[in-house]
Amino acid sequence: AYAASFRSDKGLLALTQGVPSGARQTLTNFPEKMTPIPNVFRLFGDEYHTRLYYGGDLEFANIKVLFSAADEVRSENDFEVKVANAWGAHDEVVFKEFTDAFLAEAKPQFAMLFSLSSHEPFDVPYAKLDDEYLNSVAYTDSCLGVMMRRLKASEKWNNTLVIITADHGTIRPD
């Protein structure tokens, strides 16, 4: 795992477009400058289905521009949730629907899931550890474990590559 920045908008820019993190600004604030920059979702032709699932609000820091080339984008309002946190749908809901869609798709695919439950305020429907942060990470890890077991049990497993990375590390660079 490697974090490209200290903020999601900058880390996701590095992950989706290969652009190093800027110190003060991010290109998500200047979408017109992003058009000529390669985007991972544009690398795949029509024979692939591309998707992003995120339980939060894609308007945050204008990160929606990073995923505009994807065939399918699902975010906060696309998930039916009975319980959510301040950032949006809990990981268990997003991971399940992501995995359902991945397993149901007949075409080859590039699929990206952006998790949010291990983000402060660390409000998750899970109570295994006393430390709120570590508990939230354990919760996300449990959701990831369920997803990985489902993928491994499927016929798609032998032709699937799973990459896990952090979008950002510390709260501030100092």
Could you list some keywords that capture this structure?
single chain, two-stranded antiparallel sheet, globular, 174 residues, 3-stranded parallel beta sheet, alpha/beta
Provide a descriptive summary of the structure in words:
The chain is an alpha/beta fold and 174 residues long. Helix content is 26%, strand content 11%. It contains 3 helices and 5 strands, in the order H-E-E-E-E-H-E-H. It has helices spanning 8-17, 91-104, 132-152, and strands at 49-54, 72-74, 84-85, 88-89, 109-114. The strands form 2 sheets. It has a 3-stranded parallel β-sheet, with helices on one face. The protein has a two-stranded antiparallel sheet with strand order 3-4.
Straight-line N-to-C gap:
21 Å
What is the count of β-strands? 5
Tell me the strand order in the biggest sheet: 2-1-5
Order of helices and strands: HEEEEHEH
Q: Into which percent range does the helicity of residues fall?
A: 25-40%
Radius of gyration: 16 Å
Share of residues in strands: 5-15%
Q: What number is the mean pLDDT?
A: 89
Structural class: alpha/beta
Largest sheet geometry:
3 strands, parallel
